[in-house]
């Protein structure tokens, strides 16, 4: 098992803030909008350095999405920022008509996704957003795993012409990917080559997958671990190639098993090379209050759960 | 005053286009389209500063957004007759493989359209975003938008109206088609709008009313007055009093023709009341 280390834990939302700030300095077409969560989204640096290119929408997310769509007409590249719940479900029709169907170059950037929002509870813990966004024709869906990757993704999506949903989170997580990485939309990242089971993980579950791989290695199980930061378009080739070798797969995500990464992988396999699959995801449930670690354990979204599902899926081969 | 006879002839021809388009496919929205015919004819031929041809960004020209997308027949007719696409293409309205979808969209690349609309209440926000882009680009051209009065029941409008005044977006003229009708009946019966003028003013907008929204000279004068009100730190709203179904007597003063097409006999009457002026498509 390849060794991964990190100097410190940082929140992925800070990676977004850093990436946005860099875009502010390098691309004068980039503008940013926020719905009264500038601090939570780490957008202060961009706002302070580019006050004329920052738009405070207030607690009015529907208007914010419309403003962003309008700003593209005239050549701007708008980045909207609010919590994932308010970035998707609350404004689904606005995104559908004014952004996706209209083909507008809007970057919908969503923090506090999933259970790791923690104590605020289920009203704010959206576990359906990947599904909502991936169903929209033309929408690119990205869920990054650490600070460096989130920063790189933020910068990369400015160069992509078309709507993007970029999902990240609140808790501090190991920052293990390289600082100077090149972020390629739609390209899987191979973290560890293995032969017994494929683990395909996204977002905060990527580090858990690495830890799971280490535990499995101690037991003599060789896990191939793939970091899927882009859920749509999915790197089907990488997944099919891996599963052709290992014969089974575990998918891991901080999202409902209905509509998430796991279903995209299952669809890919069923259409090309059916293989046993197990899901590490929430099982069609809402979340609740608690610390991020408590929640991830209670809902089975951690390395222990990945290890258990890996053994289970291998037995089904 | 400009040569309004030509514009009146154009308006009559547009009304013919509208009823013929919806009759052919037995669907579409003639009522609001007829009521806004003078507005569109005036806007695209007398009021807005426009480039020849079309590009999405609309830099260096005025830009229009239709929020109440269901009145696509009048929009398509006026765009075609302004030269954005061939007039013959009006034949394809609502047909399979057409650029003239039931509600306007950018998806099929129809020149003149910059945003999809149809799901109501979204156009004000989009228009404001485009107005902000014009300011960033130091482009002193204006953004025009049109909204149904019933459409103002959608809450997103009031988010946008609040935003526009707070941020002094003074390069926009948002016109409300104030015909007081919607699908289920009069706005007073369905969900009363109250004192619309007072509401816009309370939100910090300058408001102008066009009492005769189906008189092309009154519409031109009103829109030019609205234009003179821009650039003064406040967004501008125009409450344009119109008659739904205007120009076809049996369609007027009722919500019945909001989304209903005429039959063959009714079409004949409508065309008789609007004789061909510039040539049918």
Task: Characterize the structure shown.
The complex is a heterodimer of chains A (317) and B (281). With 317 residues, chain A is of the alpha/beta class. Chain A folds into two domains: 9-174, Rossmann fold; 189-315, 3-Layer(aba) Sandwich (Rossmann fold). Chain A contains twelve helices and 14 strands. In chain A, the strands form three sheets. A seven-stranded mixed beta sheet of chain A has the order 3-2-4-5-7-6-12, with helices on both faces. Chain A has a five-stranded mixed beta sheet with strand order 9-11-10-13-14, sandwiched between helices. In chain A, strands 1-8 form a two-stranded antiparallel sheet. With 281 residues, chain B is α/β, with parallel strands linked by helices. Chain B has one domain (4-273): Thiamin diphosphate (ThDP)-binding fold, Pyr/PP domains (Rossmann fold). Chain B is built from ten helices and seven strands. In chain B, strands 1-2-3-7-6 form a five-stranded parallel beta sheet, with helices on both faces. A two-stranded antiparallel sheet of chain B has the order 4-5. The longest helix of chain B is centred in the first third of the chain and has 22 residues, at 4-25. Chain A binds chain B through residues 31, 52-53, 55, 57-58, 60, 62-76, 78, 93-94, 96-98, 101-104, and chain B through 56-59, 63, 65, 105-107, 114-119, 121-134, 136-137, 139, 155-156, 159-160, 162-163, 166-167.
CATH topology of the largest domain in chain A: Rossmann fold
Shape of chain A: globular
User: Which architecture of chain B per CATH?
Assistant: 3-Layer(aba) Sandwich
Subunit organisation of the chains: heterodimer
Counted beta strands of chain A? 14
What are the key terms here?
heterodimer; A: Rossmann fold; 2 domains; seven-stranded mixed sheet; 38% helix; B: 281 residues; alpha/beta; Rossmann fold; five-stranded parallel sheet; two-stranded antiparallel sheet
Concise overview:
The complex is a heterodimer of chains A (317) and B (281). Chain A is an alpha/beta fold.
């Amino acid at each position: 098992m390849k060794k991964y280390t990190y100097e410190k834990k940082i929140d992925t939302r800070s990676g977004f803030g850093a990436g946005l700030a860099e875009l502010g300095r390098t691309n004068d077409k980039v503008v940013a909008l926020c719905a009264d969560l500038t601090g939570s989204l780490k957008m202060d640096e961009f706002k302070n350095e580019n006050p004329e290119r920052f738009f405070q929408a207030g607690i009015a997310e529907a208007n914010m999405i419309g403003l962003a769509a309008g700003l593209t007409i005239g050549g701007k590249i708008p980045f909207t920022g609010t919590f994932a719940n308010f970035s998707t479900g609350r404004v689904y029709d606005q995104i559908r008509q004014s952004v996706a169907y209209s083909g507008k170059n809007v970057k919908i950037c969503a923090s506090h996704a999933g259970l790791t929002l923690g104590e605020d509870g289920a009203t704010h813990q959206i576990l359906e957003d990947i599904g909502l966004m991936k169903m929209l024709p033309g929408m690119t869906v990205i869920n990054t795993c650490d600070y460096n990757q989130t920063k790189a993704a933020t910068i990369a999506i400015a160069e992509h012409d078309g709507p993007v949903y970029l999902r990240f989170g609140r808790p501090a997580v190991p920052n293990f990917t390289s600082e100077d990485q090149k972020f390629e939309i739609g390209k899987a990242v191979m973290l560890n080559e293995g032969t017994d089971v494929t683990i395909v993980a996204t977002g905060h579950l990527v580090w858990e997958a690495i830890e799971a791989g280490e535990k499995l290695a101690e037991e003599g199980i060789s896990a191939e671990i793939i970091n899927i930061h882009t859920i749509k378009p999915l790197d089907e080739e990488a997944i099919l190639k891996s599963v052709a070798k290992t014969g089974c797969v575990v998918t891991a995500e901080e999202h409902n098993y209905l509509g998430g990464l796991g279903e995209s992988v299952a669809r890919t396999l069923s259409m090309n090379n059916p293989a046993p699959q197990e899901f590490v995801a929430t099982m069609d449930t809402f979340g609740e209050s608690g610390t991020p670690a408590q929640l991830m354990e209670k809902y089975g979204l951690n390395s222990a759960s990945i290890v258990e599902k890996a053994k289970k899926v291998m037995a089904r081969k | 005053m400009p040569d309004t006879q030509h514009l009146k002839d154009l308006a009559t021809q547009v009304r013919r286009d509208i009823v013929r388009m919806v009759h052919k496919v037995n669907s579409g929205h003639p009522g609001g389209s007829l009521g806004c015919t003078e507005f569109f004819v005036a806007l695209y031929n007398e009021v807005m500063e426009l480039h020849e041809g079309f590009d999405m960004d609309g830099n260096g020209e005025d830009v229009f957004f239709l929020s109440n997308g269901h009145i696509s027949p009048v929009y398509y007719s006026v765009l075609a007759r302004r030269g954005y696409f061939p007039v013959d293409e009006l034949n394809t309205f609502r047909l399979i493989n057409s650029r003239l979808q039931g509600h306007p969209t950018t998806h099929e690349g129809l020149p003149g359209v910059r945003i999809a609309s149809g799901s109501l209440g979204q156009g004000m926000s989009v228009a404001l975003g485009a107005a902000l882009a014009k300011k960033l680009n130091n482009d002193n051209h204006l953004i025009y938008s049109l909204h149904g009065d019933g459409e103002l029941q959608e809450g997103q409008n009031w988010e946008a109206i609040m935003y526009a005044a707070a941020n002094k977006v003074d390069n926009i003229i948002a016109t409300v088609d104030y015909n007081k009708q919607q699908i289920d009946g009069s706005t007073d019966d369905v969900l009363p709008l109250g004192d619309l003028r007072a509401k816009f003013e309370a939100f910090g907008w300058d408001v102008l009313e066009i009492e005769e929204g189906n008189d092309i000279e009154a519409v031109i004068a009103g829109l030019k007055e609205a234009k003179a009100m821009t650039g003064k730190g406040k967004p501008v709203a125009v409450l344009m009093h119109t008659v739904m179904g205007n120009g076809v007597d049996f369609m007027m003063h009722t919500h019945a023709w909001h989304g209903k097409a005429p039959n063959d006999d009714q079409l004949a009457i409508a065309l008789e009341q609007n004789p061909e002026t510039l040539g049918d498509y």
